[in-house]
Amino acid sequence: MHSFHRIPLPSQMEKTSWLLVVILVVVLLGGAEGRKSRILDESSSYELEYKAISCRAHSASIKDFGGVGDGKTLNTKAFQEAVNQLSQYASDGGSQLIVPAGQWLTGSFNLTSHFTLFLQKDAVLLASQEINEWAVIDPLPSYGHGRDAAGGRYISLLFGTNLTDVIITGENGTIDGQGALWWQKFHSKKLKYTRPYLIELMHSDNIQISNLTLVNSPSWNIHPVYSSNIIIQGITILAPVKSPNTDGINPDSCTNIRLEDNYIVSGDDCVAVKSGWDEYGIKYGMPTSQLIIRRLTCISPYSAAIALGSEMSGGIQDVRAEDITAINTESGVRIKTAVGRGGFVKDVYVKGMTLHTMKWVFWMTGNYGSHADTHWDPNALPEIKRINYRDVVAENVSMAARLEGISGDPFTGICMSNVTISMAKKAKKYPWTCTDIEGITSGVQPTPCQLLPDQGPEKSEMCNFPTESLPIDNIEMQRCSYILNY
Predict the structure, then answer these.
(1) Using CA atoms, how far apart are residues 273 and 226, in angstroms rounded to an integer?
(2) By three-state DSSP, how is residue 167 classified?
(3) pTM
(4) Is 268 a catalytic residue?
(5) Does an H or E element contain 186, and which?
(6) 165, 268, 269, 436: which one is catalytic?
(7) Domain boundaries, the chain
């Protein structure tokens, strides 16, 4: 148990059924494991305990830097000063910044290494709606182009680059992007730059993002890019299902990632795996690999539970998804690519999907389009192979699969086993559409297309899921315990 005195520093949904409610409660309770706090003395002391990849030797409150949690006072300078001051402890056990209960209005601020940002219960970071609070930075080199508009992009609310050992966590505190203003500007085509994300960490290593609620992001919610050794768990992400591009978690040109026990309701893909766009991603050449996705619950009527692409020009390899629940979601696992993308998506393993009310269970698209600019290479063909699905149950489905490879560049090595799909009353007449693909199936209902021949019921255990662990599974959480005197 660490005991700290305050460091002397300068003064300052659309409606869901009861089932969804139960799922949300379960996820939130699950995410709360290892977190507890209690007031020891109402005048000052506070016991805080949680699990993290690192514990910290120094602690301070945003109030120490003049922060005011009234929902009106702008705290950008207070947060940045806090981070800057606490960075001096990076080589002395690290530091944590506590955000207590309140409404903390802020613009973007940068994080530092060996640092924890901790949002206590009922703490809310409110993203400023003043556009001048958001600096404009260059487009990502693997994209070469903004997604909403050519050129730069607004910096994310929480941002960091070239960092190590960064933790953003809490007692289910909230980060509110107040995205409606941004969505309106996007729809009216009034944006000069790409909208900000809530959390973006670049060129960084050893990252934990956990036990938080993220709501109403202007665009993507969590975007680790060019980074490694990342754990994102116990996160609840909520956005209107018609909000534009509010992807949940987007690992992008990253290695060794573990996404666990996350609940996402969004207007775009719940998890979108990426690695750069067209000729820029090909040139940058940094794949996303060794990705684990476990116990994801997703609601996204217009997008996928898990999307691979469409920006995948640096490659995607060794993705392992299991225990995936999707409700009222357009598709389960979707591969999005096109001529000009180049790159690859291979060695994808999916086991244990439970799906209810879907447009498609399986969807692969080789004609996604949406190019960064006019300079894409028509000879840059993507390689899609060794895509494995097993143990899938789906009900109230409009169409079992839409599998569309590229003429002269078929998607190969598709494997499906032990799949039961119950079609909706008004389902499409033909449940499977298959072009330019190759693969096999076993124990799949309804009967797949001829390009996926049945190998017989004795092969129902094929499409093996890897048994060896990935390095990210060997990272263990420590129990961090503190007495905070505030």
Answers:
(1) 12
(2) strand
(3) 0.93
(4) yes
(5) helix 180-187
(6) 268
(7) 58-471
